[in-house]
Amino acid sequence: MTETLRPAFADRPRPLLSYGIPFSSSAAHHITDLFHASKIYILCSASLARDTDALDRLTRALGPDKIAGTRIGMQSHTLWSEVLEVVRDAQAVEADLLITLGGGSLTDAAKVVALAISNNTTTPSTLLTLTSEPPTPNPPIKPPSIPIISIPTSLSAGEYSSFAGATHDTSRRKYSFGAPIRGPQLVILDPELTATTPERIWLGTGIRAVDHCVETYLSSGVGSKDGVTEETDRLALHALGLLVPGLVKCRLNNKDGIDADGDGGKAARLDCALGSVDAMAACSAGLPLGASHGIGHQLGPFGVPHGETSCILLPAVCKYNAKHSSSSSSNSDVFPRQTKLRDFLLRQEGVAGVVRKYYADAAVDLGDVLDAVIRELGLPRSLQAVGVGRDQFDALAEHSLHDRWCQANVVPLQEKGQVLEILETVA
């Protein structure tokens, strides 16, 4: 086996991307050669620690003498209280490197932990001063000095971002943390490890990466033209060309035992993982996202996993934007861009057949194509399916209006009624 080691993005040296060898071998090599670390703090998914030998394999490869501390499990959406627990633990052992082994909430937690440690932040009130929306002007925030290695088992792709989100325990509001926060310096991809991920999480976070691509591609045709680049479009489309067929193959492999590539699904899983890299490259180019992300950020604290917010909201937001765009307004490019993206998706392996399964020969728009793919993956398509009722819509809509991506949606969401209209279509 030969390792591929390269920058994840063409325009910046970090993070590095490693794949082709077992995750434990890659981590052990780079901790010594690249980071020269000796006091490693591991944040590991509870399910991985409980149901697999992944943590044991990592510990053996690194050497127990280099493990300064381990945190097993964190709740979804990254609670402030748990972040601060890890901050105190990591400070106590003088950790010089963080490793995340698991899903996206751990990655967000590690990013906030590293920022908090650099600023000696150990309480909710001081953590608030590090957010993108501090209550009062702050003194300069020190950048993180502790590097992070991420070994992801999902496709949410937060490990490629220099942003993080964490949820206030009392208000349930999710706060953003931006510059000078830093993402992982090294991301290790191991498709065999991801086979341990529950199917619903793997596929759902894959749709989250699809959401990154779709909202980036659609926003690039609207508003400020100087932010549009052919490279951003290329990245978004390339990512979708890997992700959508790859996710469908993963579902067929798990559900029906159909091994399209004859390798137990490893190639499809690696395609999905590499697609998520290009998805983040596209959506980190500085273009705005949209209401699927904006409402989804606030839906998360209601108990809905990150990926499933996109499964429910993305087709509905596309339909809302198409319905409310106008040929005479600043969002006149919405429908043509949606049509181009629909046609691109229909050309990808297996997609047209999936759409025919749910829509026969009826004319379909982009929202319909996305709906068919998500349904084929067996993922939820309504708020009721994830336990969110109409009695929660008002609070959800109010919180959503504060999110920058709702305001930046190609049809800006400026009134509660607009958010409620979208929510009603997925009730």
UniProtKB/TrEMBL annotation:
Entry-linked InterPro entries: ADH_Fe/GldA, ADH_Fe_C, Alcohol_dehydrogenase_Fe
TM spans (from-to): none
Domain Alcohol dehydrogenase iron-type/glycerol dehydrogenase GldA stretches: 24-191
Swiss-Prot/TrEMBL keywords: Oxidoreductase
Pfam families: ADH_Fe_C, Fe-ADH
Signal peptide: none
Xref: PANTHER family: ALCOHOL DEHYDROGENASE, ALCOHOL DEHYDROGENASE, PUTATIVE (AFU_ORTHOLOGUE AFUA_1G06800)-RELATED
Annotated protein name in UniProt: Alcohol dehydrogenase
